Amino acid sequence: MKTRHLSAVALLLCTTGLIAGEQDTSSIQAGKKLVNTHCISCHASSFGRDGSGIYTREYRKVRSLSGLKAQVTNCNTMLNLKWFDDEEQQVVLYLNHTFYHF
């Protein structure tokens, strides 16, 4: 009986992890779409090419995950994008996954 209970708990934990992974993937893709739609043109005009130089430059302003969140919120406010908190979080997930790796 104890073994069945432990197996059920292990299965639940694995399933929960898979669901979280799927949510992260869809959030990252949603963040990518938001960045491509709202951010790239401005970043490209300032940093050339595809604009990703803003994230990879040697003297970048963002140095932590909380700093990244603050910068995304700042851009959202300054550009009056009217993103909801979950959209900001999607952009943070995408940028962190793709460029920062905090």
Question: What features would you describe in this structure?
Answer:
- The protein has 102 residues and is mainly alpha-helical.
- It has one domain.
- The protein is built from five helices and no strands.
- Helix 4 packs across helix 5 (85-100).
- Residues 5-20 have low confidence and may be disordered.
- Keywords: Signal.
- It comes from Methylophilus aquaticus.
Question: How would you sum up this structure in a few lines?
Answer:
This protein has 102 residues and is mostly helical.
Essential attributes:
single chain; 102 residues; mainly alpha; 5 helices; 77% helix; globular; signal
Residue share in β-strands: under 5%
Biggest β-sheet strands, sense, barrel? none
Question: What is the tally of helical segments?
Answer: 5
Helix content: over 70%
Class computed from helices, strands and strand pairing: mainly alpha
Structural domain count: 1
Distance between the termini: 42 Å
Oligomeric description of these chains: single chain
**Secondary-structure element series:** HHHHH
Report the average pLDDT across residues: 82
Q: Which regions have little confidence, pLDDT < 50, spanning 5+ residues?
A: 5-20
Supply Rg.
Answer: 18 Å
Q: What is the 3D shape?
A: globular
Extended strand count: 0
